[in-house]
Amino acid sequence: MDDLRVKKTLLSLEKAFYELRKVKPLEQIKIKVLCENAMVNKTTFYNYFSDIYAFSDYIENKVIEEKFKILPLHSGALLNIKKLVYEIYNSFNCEQIHILFDNRYDVLIKKCEKKLFEDYKNTINTTKKQLYISFFIYGASHILFENKGSESEKLEMLNDILTQYLYEKFGLGF
Questions:
Q1: Is residue 22 within 8 Å of residue 99, measured between CB atoms?
Q2: Range of 108's domain?
């Protein structure tokens, strides 16, 4: 998709999509309205995407890729999972993510987990490590995104969990 016309079309669709997602859940967005708002022909939309869910998936994956690209790479056996979790949280705690994944944080977490396992396959290299990390990722996301309480209390709690379990079990550095 290096053609400038394609890029402009996709950016126009993305902008219109974000505006619609601010006021409607994904299931209520009609392609006709999206295309009208983006000033793009419906046929053009269907040249690239089969439905609104495929388009949403495209945008979500694009955003996650962009977010992970700006995170510092933690290398080797000294994966600093604590620091990485904080960096992910700070990077993903933004309006763009809240608009895309409102009431759908499970989708965000599943995609982030997949990306994390891809990027750190040499460090998170056993089933046991993957299970512990998955357990932590899902629990951390629930604490951070779906519960009330101060951010400092939430981060302190996650720090305790990381220190007591992941570090002691696997030596995942801090």
A1: yes
A2: 72-170
